[in-house]
Amino acid sequence: MFPTITAKDDKITVLADHHIANRRLYREHIWKPARAMHEEVGSFAAWRRVLVEIEDFDGRLYFPDQRPFRHQEIYEMFPDVGNRWMGLFMETAPCGTAPKRYASPITYNRVRVIELYCRLYSAVEGIAA
Questions:
Q1: 101-108 contacts: CB < 8 A, separation 24 or more?
Q2: How many C-beta neighbours within 10 Å does residue 20 have?
Q3: pLDDT-based confidence at residue 7 (cuts at 50, 70, 90)
């Protein structure tokens, strides 16, 4: 659904804002994969350390419309050493199958980086290209 790397230019596509704003896509392609990877990552604080790997792809990250995606350094995006924000991101609604809260435009870049990390480093079939 979301191509990771286009072989032609070695570009990596990140999610557009409207993808993140779509609750179904958010739940299925961002929140659930991140929750699935959480056990492997180990802790909310560890997410800060693994997300730094996204910086290795800087200069190759593009929105679907081919605009470059530039982001702050990961430690600036997630300044809290304990990464409490990640704990809030992972929370489940009372139904148990949906996020307790969805992203707001101010957090879109954080969510975009989390989704990209999950897509690039997940062993789940269909996520990584």
A1: 102/23, 102/26, 103/20, 103/21, 103/26, 103/30, 105/17, 108/17, 108/20
A2: 23
A3: very low
**Per-residue pLDDT tens over the stretch 70-123:** 999 999 999 999 999 999 999 999 999 999 999 999 999 999 999 999 999 985
Which residues, 6+ apart, have CB-to-CB distance to 25 below 8 Å? 19
Q: How far apart are CA 100 and CA 87, in angstroms?
A: 11
Alpha helix (H) residue ranges in 1-129? 17-21, 23-26, 32-41, 44-51, 74-77, 84-90, 108-121
Tell me: pLDDT of 51 over 80: yes
- The answer to whether the beta carbons of residues 114 and 51 sit under 8 Å apart is yes
Q: How far apart are CA 125 and CA 102, in angstroms?
A: 25
The mean pLDDT value of the chain amounts to: 90
DSSP 8-state secondary structure symbol assigned to residue 98 = S
122 Cβ neighbours under 8 A, 6+ residues apart: 33, 36, 37, 128
Among candidates 74, 70, 62, which has minimal Cα distance to 5?
A: 62
